[in-house]
Amino acid sequence: MLQVNPDRRLTAQAALEHPWILRRRRTSPGAVDRGVAEALVAFGQSPKFRRCCLELLAWSLSTTDRAKVHDQFLSMDTEGKGTITRAQLKAVMTAKLRIPEPEAEVVFASMDSNHNDEVNYSEFLAAMVSTCIELHNSPVLALFRKFDRDNSGYVTAHGLRAVLGEGFEAEAMLDTADLDRDGRLSFPEFYSFLQGSPAAASARPPLVLRAASVLFGVLRFSPFRCCVRPAPARGEGQ
């Protein structure tokens, strides 16, 4: 790979097939946990808004979180190309869960967000968030604040369009998560929706989430709101 002359340099495919790389593939093809297969199905059956949010959250996962499912991805990527093909996903769905091929096709289509007939690592990670990977408060709060474009303490259809683009049906997406039917999402509503289960959606949110919701309301009307700033990232101002 370090050859200056491109004619003598290994291609990407040849590099993936090099013995040094192959020896480090610790998992055997097909060794996919049933829980991972079930998570893929649950992701495929989720509302479009939830899938969009989980795809955004996947980019903020820590190295530790990604490591929990890294080997599972390699097990499905039997050709070692860094992606999961339609046939590979169907093989796991039918073998692990006895899912008919048409349903497996729906799961694949929901994960293939860029429509290139392959599922890449970030798309796979999105399906693992809140199932095989715990949903942490901090990245969810950061995503909520991204959608809350006017700093009102709520997510509105306007905020969704501003982040996701005009091509998305913002009102319809918001409606799938709006538990109290007031046309907007509070932080507890948003968090519960991302949990993904009816029980989570109807449950009383954790104290830290209720406190965050109250804080948003206080800042909305506080005369000192303009003085509130997010903590600087590590290394800034040094």
TrEMBL record:
GO molecular function: calcium ion binding
Keyword Transport in record: no
Domain EF-hand: 99-134, 165-200
Signal peptide as annotated in the record: none
The keyword Repeat belongs to this UniProt entry's keyword annotation: yes
Alphabetical list of InterPro entries matching this protein: Centrin_CML-like, EF-hand-dom_pair, EF_Hand_1_Ca_BS, EF_hand_dom
Keywords, comma-separated and alphabetical: Calcium, Repeat
Pfam family, one: EF-hand_7
Protein name: EF-hand domain-containing protein
Organism: Alexandrium catenella
